Amino acid sequence: MDVTYKSTRNSSETATASQAILKGLAERGGLFVPDHIPALDVSLETLAKMSYKQVAYEVMKLMFTDFTEEELKHCIDGAYDKKFDTELIAPLVSKAGAHYLELFHGATIAFKDMALSILPYLLVTAAKKNNVKNDIVILTATSGDTGKAALAGFADVPGTKIIVFYPKNGVSPIQEKQMVTQKGNNTYVVGIVGNFDDAQTGVKNMFSDKALAEEMDRAGYQFSSANSINIGRLVPQMVYYVYAYTRLVADGTISVGEPINVVVPTGNFGNILAAYYAKEMGLPIAKFICASNENKVLYDFFATGVYDKNRDFILTSSPSMDILISSNLERLIYRIAGEDSEKNNQLMQALTKEGKYEITGEMRAKLSLFYGNYASEQETAATIKRVYTSDHYIMDTHTAVAATVYDKYVKDTGDKTPTVIASTASPYKFTRSVMEAIDTKYASQSDFALVDELNRISGVTIPQAIEDIRSAEILHDTVCDKAEMEQTVRDILKL
């Protein structure tokens, strides 16, 4: 049976997979969700013998039902190729009592590559399927990683432009350098005076502006999104959880049907939601361990049932999680609200107007599979040093947040279920924070001196993504106030 996508805020708005990918965001600010999630129709034993690309096809064919086999395999083959520095695409590394799923072997050395390598192919295919004549304008807010991965994916793709907004003082030096040196005649990078939530709100407002949409249509443009709100981002992320489980089966760590836990460092909730959807597909996941940094809005939500963004925004060493409005949580709220779009809409309106909402006791009872906790800056740094010392394995700050929270979970519960930790970025992306965690003597060294030192002490080859920006020219230097975002887009598109 074909999967239809519907809006979390308007049950009467539906779309095919390709239409949902093209739109990115539903009307009224809603998100597209599948009307059902089909069960895997290939056994886990069979999947354990497959490559990453083959697993990707078996998962995505169930969710993107209006794509032909030829179309989908073309997208997958184009995405998971030599852009990745390993044929495994997402290696699973066993260290320090857990299995680290390394999601950073793509072109921009962060987990966003796993989905943003395929999204341009999905989007271009979707445009052809739906006879779209307009150019697609990818409009995206980033807390650091999505921006570069999206820019790399869409650079010089015919029929597209990409505009990325990022918080000017809210990303790491390496993240910023990666974005502002991006080549491509269709790429635009804008720093905003504000934080990620400001950027994300500005982008959502433009998506919801019907007058702007009509003006763009007259000029031959239409918006789409590369953020994790796009179902074309979320579904490819389901793949690597299925792949990780089947690798544990293949190497004899677990038997088919034996449960695993997953730990995901998350701010926008997309990466952990993909794991939840994978479980709905039949993957034996027992517990979803949601790891937050000091912006612990998700931890507080799981602890109290109250989502409250009315708090100080903290800049941390794990900036991709410096988020107070977790957009993808809405998809889970919609699910536990009994797929009642009106009930969900009321909660989201309360978030917009009052900055918070509270779910019912009945809804909270449906969150029993989730465990939330957080890591302080000091705990994050201590975990990086501890695992380096014990296992000679160097992780980035976001992965260290997850590892810290996993340790807390085990202490709280005594649960020793085999566990996969999503390792979301290369340590080379956050070199200064990582190296200073290992030894404070590194504080005085320059960023690229630290890159070379990280290479020396880890033995891990410096990624091409880092080598490329050592002497790269700054190509994007636009900065605007958060209130000027729409005008900046108008200027770029010459509206």
Task: Write up this protein.
- The chain starts with a strand and ends with a helix.
- The strands form four sheets. It has a six-stranded mixed sheet with strand order 4-5-15-10-11-14, with helices on both faces. Strands 9-6-7-8-16 form a five-stranded parallel sheet, sandwiched between helices.
- The longest helix has 20 residues, at 231-250.
- 45% of the residues lie in helices and 16% in strands.
- The chain has 495 residues and is an alpha/beta fold.
- α3 (52-63) crosses α11 and α17 (377-391) crosses α19.
- It has 22 helices and 16 strands.
- It is globular and about 60 Å long.
- The protein has a domain at 92-109 and 232-461: 3-Layer(aba) Sandwich (Rossmann fold).
CATH class of one domain: Alpha Beta
Q: Kindly report the CATH topology of one domain.
A: Rossmann fold
| Helix percent band | 40-55%
Oligomer: single chain
Strand arrangement, major sheet: 4-5-15-10-11-14
Number of strands: 16
Average the pLDDT over all residues and give the rounded result: 95
**Gross CATH architecture of one domain:** 3-Layer(aba) Sandwich
Approximate shape = globular
Please state roughly what percent of the residues sit in beta strands, choosing from under 5%, 5-15%, 15-25%, 25-35%, 35-45% or over 45%: 15-25%
Query: Low-confidence parts lasting 5 or more residues at pLDDT below 50?
Result: none
Radius of gyration of CA atoms, rounded to a whole number: 21 Å
Major sheet size, sense and barrel closure:
6 strands, mixed
What is the count of helical runs? Answer: 22
Q: Note the gap between the termini.
A: 43 Å
Structural class: alpha/beta
